[in-house]
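Lab notebook, page 48
Experiment: co-folding of the full assembly
Goal: obtain a model of how the components sit together before planning crosslinking
Operator: M.T.
Materials (sequences as entered):
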Amino acid sequence: MRKKLDFLFAGVGGQGTILASNIVSEVGMRCGYDVKKSEVHGMSQRGGAVESHVRWAEKVYSPLIEEGNADFLLAFEMLEAARWPHFLAPGSVALVNIHQVMPPSVNLGQEKYPEEKEIESILTGAGDRVIWLEGAAKAVELGNHPTLAGVVLLGVLSTRLDEPAETWLRAVEDLVPAKFKELNVKAFWAGREMAAGS
Amino acid sequence: MKKLMSGNEAIAYGAYLSGVKVGSAYPGTPSTEIMENFVKYPGVYTEWAPNEKVALDVGVGSAYAGTRTMVTMKHVGMNVAADPLFYVSYTGSNGGLVIVNADDPGMHSSQNEQDNRNYAKFAKVPMLEPADSEEAKQYVGVALEISETYDTPVILRTVTRISHSKSAVEIEPEPPLVEKTALPAYQRNPGKYVMVPANAKRRHPVVVERQKQLSQYAENSPLNRIEPGDDRIGIITAGIAYQYAREVFPTASFLKLGMVNPLPEQLIRDFAGQVNEVIVIEELEPFIEEHVRLMGIAVRGKEIFPNIDEFSPQIVRECAIAAGLIEAEPASDTPVPRFDLPVRPPMLCPGCGHRGVFYTLKQLGVLVLGDIGCYTLGAAPPLAAMHTTGCMGAGIGVAHGIDKAGVIDRCVAIIGDSTFFHSGINPLINVLYNQGTTTTIVLDNRVTAMTGHQMHPGSGRTLQNKETFQVNISALARGIGYEKIDEVSPYDLDKLSAVVEDHLASKLPSLIVVKHPCVLYAREKHPVPVVDPDTCVNCGTCLELGCSPLTQEEDSISINPMLCNGCGMCAQTCPTGAIQIAEINS
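Observation: model returned without errors.
Model output:
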């Protein structure tokens, strides 16, 4: 077991950010870590930004990660990824879904959506590296359910940690709605393959 | 076995384990999920009340009848429920009564920050404050025991980061199913329960004596504990602040309070005697700090830590470093710069009927006196068609006041259906009674949408998912005496505009009920309109709707089919007819 692992999740309402963070929390519990998780509900379903913190350690006090301490950033939308460089620990990894949801100011032509290169430089200024992932494209290929991309990213994440794939798989199966179980299992394996290929 | 639960799930679980049989609440972030989870347990009765005052009166009745009862609300809900809180403090509760109060430091979803620990002191009732989900579960049972032993309501206080954070909770054996042998008999005792002045005068000293006994309880209760450590700094803290402080001061001595009213004075004195310096770390007001200072103990708190916004580990650390309490960490070579990125505020959903109303009101240039709900997003640009929002039910009264001040500007009050049932009916009566001319618009989508689609008196279903009466808002207004009432769909912009114009021109107090189901709840989707790039002059008129699928490209407008709900409002606003409603069979 590691001393501690802090995961920061970022996305847009409706992308399954909370579900993905619930799955990571569950995996931590089942592997014997003390786990805490925090997010803010409320207006998130109305298209606003969503963030969720998951912490694994022998003993966790604060449910919020302290700035500069996140070991992994899992971002389901590119602009949302760029908001959190100050949370990244040295040596951390950002897994970013290649997917854009335009915020209102961009729709209205008042602001520009940042370029991929710009986002990469924002994140690598603090963390170690950015891994761009075709999670959204894979989700479309598998069945276009909005939360599938998140589970694809979890498949990738699982390859970078020591916990067995079986534990991840069980947690995915137990936490997703029963009728989408099969699709989500496929998405998880797709993520594992994607990691092997990258 | 342990299970991850949010604070709210743990409170519901704790209530079930402790034999709570009746629950009443009005939804409010961050408290809503308590009742939504409690309803799932067997053998319990739960309901959504129209507002927090009604919920607490219901809870009082149930507790008077000897039944363990839970009432839940957000911090500003306690303002609404303050009246019953004060009388039930005097009368006592008989059966266990726990009032769960969820504060929202940082205002994630609220109109103001307030520290409701002050209500416990104000109403002279005990208050417990858990620091994680396991404590949240346990404290419900402790609160009920205190309630029954000392004949008092007990407030359980959480904050957003307790209610909405998950941590491990020990799963307990199922509580024994108690056979209902006899229906509860109400024990009549008017001298205790009729709060006329003569009786209330006799009850107040009882309350003061109860406070003394509770202070004694606090001294010896395991809820308050000293965690010995380094004697240089002694930290007094409670709730979520304890968790942050523990991260920042891993070796300090702690007095961790689980009961924040009344405070254990002797325990505080003993603790202060064991350490060189006493520091209080608490979010919002200096509630504990002021009490400790009044005891004559040298203490620092708010001169170091802020009295606004919610805390985080880094805020506690930065303040502690600035005050010299801990060493600064070696600075990293390059501090992470902050980037100026486009913000992503919440917006009205694609297809939301509220959008048509705010678009129309903006076109007509009227003054809009708003209220609390999803529709408050009508204040955000580009709609920007709401000019005041205060508290639940405020808009109609504010509009009437503006009317009576003699303002000639055309104005309307706007309120959602759930908010109308919460506290919009009284001000609607006031307009009629005092011969005002206010036009009130009720946005009637038949559900409490903003907090996550809870049922209300207009929904036709109860919290327990039973079919029930559906209160008709037009019929209600007619019964009050309103004569000018119209019902209209928000999706026909021309008709909506004509109806609003007609009402504004009338001197009668009037009501417009805008009827449309919440699109996020009904999940209805229609074909996506088609933009003809040759006809589109890229004027941006449709963008005034503030609908997220509409994007201004270089030459024309585009509609994101993944996001679009197909409501067709954009086609109605297009001056060149470039946006066409899609054929149903296409």
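Interpretation: Chain B touches chain A through 54 residues (CB under 8 Å).
Next step: discuss with group before ordering constructs.
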